[in-house]
Amino acid sequence: MGCRDTILDENRQYWTGRASGYSEVNQLELATQQRQKWSECLHAEIARQFPDRAPESMRVLEVGTGPGFFAILLQELGYDVTAIDLTPAMLEEAKKNAGELACRICWMEMNAEALDFANESFDVVVSRNLTWNLPHPDKAYAEWVRVLKPGGLLLNFDANWYAYLFDDEAQAAYDRDRANSAEQGVWDQNVEAEGENFDVMEDIARRVPLSKILRPAWDLKQLTAHGLQAEADEEVWQRVWSEEEKISFASTPMFLVRGAKIERFIRLET
């Protein structure tokens, strides 16, 4: 078994331990303005690609749902939502957070890099804060594109979360974020939310490929190779993050990678 294969099991174990604490973060988002900000963002992005489609006519797959934040918002908007996660404990938290909406969402335990769906099953594939910690993100993107219908939309929200482990300038910026968070009395999710598991996550981050790759340039190259018309929105964090997040994560702003699947595409092997 290779190093990256063991990371999958380590991820499952890590996020099992983090399920309750991470769920509290999502519960806070659901109880504040983040709920409306993210809901408006998701709906606007999907409507941009499908201006004449009603939400209830569209199948949406959320990959790496965690405690269910996106799945809940998308179901509230009327979309037909399937939400998957590698960790059963996360899915249990998601169902609890969804409340009465839980029965309207299809929850499934599944590996983001090996989807158990037929080709061209979904109109939209969405993900947040997942790709960075995958052992084979290239395989994940290939799978997400495979299950996307022609003309479909892929939305991936992520950041260069652990670049500081490999870059001195990023480390200095990361240290400033910690100092600014403490000085301004901001709850520092980047450290406090992970608690005693912080070193475990850093160890995993050192071994996954994307921690040392500058993004979203890498993502755009991947999606283009798979036949998507891809673009990046590197200012999306301004619209969806809370003021606390903008302080705590100042050096790692969230980006959006947006890809539309071309109706007919012939992949050229190099």
Write the layout of secondary structure elements.
Elements: H1 3-31, H2 34-49, E1 59-63, H3 69-76, E2 80-85, H4 88-98, E3 106-109, E4 122-128, H5 137-146, E5 148-158, H6 168-183, H7 189-192, H8 198-207, H9 217-225, E6 228-233, H10 236-240, H11 243-248, E7 255-261
Helix pairs in contact: 1-4, 1-8
Short note summarizing the structure:
The chain has 270 residues and is α/β, with parallel strands linked by helices.
Structure commentary:
The chain is α/β, with parallel strands linked by helices and 270 residues long. The protein has a single domain, classed as 3-Layer(aba) Sandwich (Rossmann fold). It contains eleven helices and seven strands. It has helices at 3-31, 34-49, 69-76, 88-98, 137-146, 168-183, 189-192, 198-207, 217-225, 236-240, 243-248; strands at 59-63, 80-85, 106-109, 122-128, 148-158, 228-233, 255-261. Strands 3-2-1-4-5-7-6 form a seven-stranded mixed sheet, sandwiched between helices. The chain is globular, with a radius of gyration of 18 Å.
